[in-house]
Amino acid sequence: MQSKAIRFHSTGDVEVLKYESVEVPEPKDNEVTIRHEAIGLNFIDTYYRGGLYPVSLPSGLGNEAAGVIEKVGSAVNHLKVGDRVAYGQGPLGAYSQKRTMPAHHLVKIPEGISFEEAAAVMLKGLTVQYLFRQTYKIKEGETILFHAAAGGVGLIACQWAKALGVKLIGTVSSEEKAAIAKSHGAWATINYSKENVAEKVKVLTEGKKVPVVYDGVGKDTWETSLDCLSPRGLMVSFGNASGPVTGINLGILSQKGSLYVTRPSLGGYIDTPEKLQAASEEVFEMVLTKKIKIEINQHYPLKEAAKAHEALTSRKTTGATILIP
């Protein structure tokens, strides 16, 4: 069975992405074949494409999609042909019309959630779930800092924090993005292109600063994030949008207030089918109860994935971006 997919044979800029025909294998005992209806675009995709995260070449791309099961392996009991399913983890290859993959990465999509919503919320929603509910369990009344608050993960974080009674301070790059973040529940915003983030955090918290910073930006915000933390606060570095944090002098953590740092990953927290099911149910419940609205502000045909990557890395996107097979 043939399918169209985005592949790359070398790492680099967006021109390495090729729209090709690929063979879709028959599912093994514990696998299923899925026909994609919507594919999620995420910043981590650019890390694989660019070579920051190594892969065996040639390679597919993408970790997040939603669709319908077409074939089921003999040992798969929890899914059947025709089920609406989604995933946010697993082997690279979501940028495709069809694929065969391990069944344990898939969860059923509840009624009331569309394919596009599921494809936009799985990886991003599960990321916010593990950040807010596991890495540092934010509590009502706390004030936190979240970088890139108008992005796909950021807008979910703004809404989730508000639902929990947490004051989220979000950093943004423009007044337009500040308005978007605030409309989604951010308590306050800081335009880092015009304002000093650490100084503004001090003002907003009356000098107390924050107990936790969620930083998916990386190199460019590392020191600023540390300067926003109260004594013994936790720096959660969960992404590298500006490049990886390297050459760390651990002594700086002592100098800035006996700080803690963690570099978590989705796979490190949601590493069993049971944990995936539980976390997914919590994400879907937030969507179904309208506490989180999924903002899908960009759509691209799958074959134009390179254009989608360009828009994402140049910070021209807000909310989620969906690729349509």
Structure description:
It comes from Bdellovibrio reynosensis. Keywords: NADP, Oxidoreductase. The chain is an alpha/beta fold. It folds into two domains: 2-121 and 272-324, Alpha-Beta Complex (Quinone Oxidoreductase, Chain A, domain 1), CATH 3.90.180.10; 140-263, 3-Layer(aba) Sandwich (Rossmann fold), CATH 3.40.50. The protein contains ten helices and 15 strands. Helix 2 packs across helix 3 and helix 2 crosses helix 9 (273-288). It is globular and about 60 Å long.
Q: What is shown here, in short?
A:
Keywords: NADP, Oxidoreductase. Helices cover 30% and strands 26% of the residues.
What is the secondary structure topology, with strand pairs?
Elements: E1 2-8, E2 17-23, E3 31-40, H1 43-50, E4 65-72, E5 84-87, E6 98-102, E7 107-108, H2 115-135, E8 143-146, H3 152-163, E9 167-172, H4 175-183, E10 188-191, H5 197-204, E11 210-215, H6 222-227, E12 229-237, H7 251-255, E13 260-262, H8 266-269, H9 273-288, E14 296-301, H10 305-313, E15 320-324
Parallel strand pairs: 8-9, 8-11, 9-10, 11-12, 12-13, 14-15
Antiparallel strand pairs: 1-2, 3-4, 3-6, 3-15, 4-5, 5-7
Helix pairs in contact: 2-3, 2-9
